[in-house]
Amino acid sequence: xxxxxxxxxxxxxxxxxLRLSCAASGFTFSTYxxxxxxxxxxxxxxxxxxxxxxxSGEYNVDSVRGRFTISRDNAKxxxxxxxxxxxxxxxxxxxxxxxxxxxxDLWGQGTLVTVSS
Amino acid sequence: xxxxxxxxxxxxxxVGDRVTxxxxxxxxxxxxxxxxxxxxxxxxxxxxxxxxxxxSGVPSRFSGSGSGTEFTLTISSLQPEDFxxxxxxxxxxxxxxxxxxxxxxIK
Lengths: 117, 107
What we know:
The complex is a heterodimer of chains A (117) and B (107). In chain A, 0% of the residues lie in helices and 54% in strands. Chain A is globular. Chain A has 117 residues and is mostly beta strands. Chain A has no helices and eleven strands. The chains are: A mainly beta (117), B mainly beta (107). Chains A and B meet through β5, β6 and β10 of A and β4, β5 and β10 of B.
């Protein structure tokens, strides 16, 4: 089955770190760009970061630059998001998504990150 | 950054109605625009890519049009399962930006 499954979300305090993972299956992971998209409670969608096939070509939104790092391990068919110096406004459901010619054509179910003291 | 402005932000419609949602880009993005549908508690689902190409498995009552700065998503005959929030996304340049969403509710 073609799918993406996120894990690693949870409750953390402001300033702490968290690493999200996304396990891909059912397709050739290494041939796709991948992305993280988030959605704060009751809010719209916000693109967070993209990464190229072999880890090159990273891009991310200004609000996370210098704090979040996207990476991948093609041998493990996995995508990661290392989140440091977390803030309350990083609270959101984080989705992993496959990018196909710019379109996010496959999404995971999401993992909730809550930043609160 | 390219700003994407959707209108309306919400609408009420009845089953069978024709519904049109508009997305305007702050600068030209050619046809690099997608439409997504999201239901509560679920991940977004891609409907339209490249402004007008229907994704696999999406009913033909959905259609998209436009180029440059103005785009539309049309649902020709609204069905009960279409009540959801719809988002546009530009992938012409970084950062990728979504519209703020249009919530389609039952009248």
